[in-house]
Specification:
- The chain is an alpha/beta fold.
- It has a domain at 17-60 and 129-268: Phosphatidylinositol (PI) phosphodiesterase (TIM Barrel, Alpha-Beta Barrel), CATH 3.20.20.190.
- The chain is 35% helix and 19% strand.
- The protein contains eleven helices and eleven strands.
- The strands form two sheets. It has an eight-stranded parallel beta barrel, surrounded by six helices.
């Protein structure tokens, strides 16, 4: 009996235990619980935890004076009405901006947080997906932030559309999971989506990543997912707010789903 248990545990470690049902899928709060609170703020992050998200995802840039700040767009116009490039501003300048008022009067005065403040909120047993929106120049600062935060390596994840970012992050942070983000486009000649599963798998393997994180619209059937799993990699997807889509993806074996509505979506797919 002990031998059987050991072999089962070993198999899960080597090839990953993929979700067997919708309720087993990891639910990741996109920019926090961003449907209900201003995105990428301490308020949305804490609400994500309160809503029972298994993980929260936030976006980060490096400010002009070397602080890792949490914000999605390269400029601040969408959320604040003030058009400033994030990387050209100091932390103090960014902290003057109101990123909550656009969401409603109750959120007026909410400010852009630093990553270190977000890291401090991670509850035991859950994890934070940090999406790097700038280039690899942020990696040394990210390493220092992770080392200082006191969280376990399994509670931290690095993701990025910039392959060099995740490649360097994995080299500097071998115990922390790193995933390459990718969307898809249709080849005008062949009609096939690119990049292919084979191309993304090769990239992930070359950088020793744990897996890939792709737009759900490119996952029309189980073929792509099966190829990724057969390569021993995990597959996450974004941004899913449809219960029908979430149930379909869970049935296909997706590892995790990023959503704006973590509590609602989990309840809908039970």
């Amino acid at each position: 009996m002990k031998l059987k248990w050991y072999l089962a545990a070993w198999a899960c470690t080597v090839v990953f235990c993929h979700p067997a049902s919708a309720t087993d899928v990891e639910i990741i709060a996109h920019r926090g619980a961003s449907y209900d609170a201003p995105e990428n703020t301490l308020e949305s992050v804490n609400l994500g935890w309160a809503q029972g998200a298994d993980a929260v995802e936030v976006d980060v840039y490096l400010s002009k004076d070397g602080h890792i700040v949490v914000h999605h767009d390269s400029d601040t116009k969408k959320l604040t009405g003030v058009d400033r490039k994030v990387v050209d501003q100091t932390l103090a300048e960014l902290r003057q901006l109101d990123v909550g008022a656009w969401k409603g009067a109750k959120w007026k005065g909410v400010r852009i947080p630093e990553l270190e403040n977000v890291l401090a909120t991670i509850p035991e047993g859950r994890r934070l997906f940090v999406e790097v929106k700038c280039g690899p120049e942020i990696v040394p600062d990210l390493v220092r932030a992770f080392e200082r935060c006191g969280k376990k390596p399994r509670q931290l994840v690095v993701i990025s559309f910039d392959y060099e970012v995740v490649k360097q992050a994995k080299a500097r942070l071998p115990k922390i999971a790193c995933f390459y983000l990718s969307s898809f486009e249709k080849d005008k000649k062949t009609g096939k989506l690119k990049p292919s599963a084979e191309e993304l798998i090769a990239m992930a393997k070359a950088a020793k990543l744990e897996g890939i994180n792709v737009n759900y619209k490119g996952l029309a059937n189980e073929v792509f997912i099966e190829k990724v799993h057969a390569a021993g990699l995990e597959l996450f997807t974004w941004t899913v707010n449809s219960p029908t889509e979430a149930r379909r993806l869970a049935k296909l074996g997706i590892s995790g789903i990023t959503t704006d509505r973590p509590a609602w979506l989990r309840d809908q797919i039970k």
